[in-house]
Amino acid sequence: MLKLYHQWTSTCSKRVRITLAEKKLDWESHHINLKELEHLDPWYLKLNPEGVVPTLEHDGRILTESNFIIEYLDEVFPQVPLRPDDYFERWKMRNWMHRFEAILHKNINTISFVKQNRMKRYEAFSESDIDEFLARQVNAERRATFENRIRQGVSKEEMAFAEERIAEVLDEMDVALEGRVYLNGSQLSLADISVVPFVERLGANGLDKLTDWTKRPFLGAWWSNMQELSSYKKAFDFATEPLEPKPVER
Ligand SMILES: N[C@@H](CCC(=O)N[C@@H](CS)C(=O)NCC(=O)O)C(=O)O
After folding, report:
1. Fewest CB atoms within 10 Å of the CB: 77, 136, 153, 201?
2. Of the candidates 192, 3, 181, 169, the residue with the CA atom closest to the CA atom of residue 82
3. Contact, 105 vs 211, CB < 8 A?
């Protein structure tokens, strides 16, 4: 039995939902309400000590880290293979996935904080609310990041830096996609799945310069193809469960 703990708009959750759809697997959905900080509840931290979504449960085993979850799914459910046979291409796939997580995810997160007005969540916080919120964060790095954002917001310089880092990866992708349909050649791979939710987020955040595909035509063509995949549509149209946290039955 496959059960996914996820959030409907979360980019990392979409990676897993696309993979599940590509493989036509049945799965049970458990929506985690990030706004209500359900991901920091003790029961969820037992599953995912980092306090993030997604988490996959497979026959009682718990898996975290979306890029590793999708690789696991590809190994355990070999129908519709999503890793290239060639070992060098497979290394490239993993290298892309690493860069997408380390560079794109990190920097898009900075931009989303501003563009999606996430600051709004904290505006009504009193000093003691802030302290309580920070105390619930799972490690010193998260506490420092949130404290900085809540108290100082995100500066123009930080935004410009984030856009520059994203642009660098998009440039690499555009070069790699010349003469290729997908990042690993003619077959869809986990690398494409790993990055597409972040490419979608660029447009959702109104980053016009980064989504001017005349500047990166090969990436633009890839993006058009990706949006046509039924697995992409299924993962993005995911109808969430009610957003109110449900009573926890553990
Ligand atoms: N490296 C982790 C990152 C997961 C992650 O950051 N998830 C976000 C949603 S896309 C989250 O849960 N954020 C909640 C928070 O940071 O408090 C993965 O790939 O699974």
Report:
1. 153
2. 192
3. no
Which residue shows structure tokens 């998260």?
A: 142
Indicate whether 106 pLDDT > 60.
yes
Nearest-CA residue for ligand 1 atom 5 is 52
Cis peptide before 81 (omega within 30 of 0): no
CATH, domain 87-235, list 1.10.287.180, 2.60.120.920, 3.30.1330.30, 1.20.1050.10 = 1.20.1050.10
**How far, in Å, CA of 42 to CA of 18, rounded?**
28
The residue contributing the CA closest to ligand 1 atom 13 is 52
Q: Is 193 in the pocket of ligand 1 (CB under 6 A)?
A: no
Predicted model pTM? 0.94
DSSP element (H, E) containing 28: strand 28-31
The verdict on the CB of residue 38 being under 6 Å from ligand 1 is no
184 lines ligand 1 (CB under 6 A): no
Contact 149, 125 (CB under 8 A): no
Domain with CATH 3.40.30.10 in the chain: 2-81
Please give the DSSP secondary-structure letter assigned to residue 101: I
- Report pLDDT digits (tens) over 22-36: 999 999 999 999 989
- Determine the distance separating the centroid of ligand 1 and the alpha carbon of 214, expressed in angstroms: 31
**CA-65 nearest atom, ligand 1:** 20
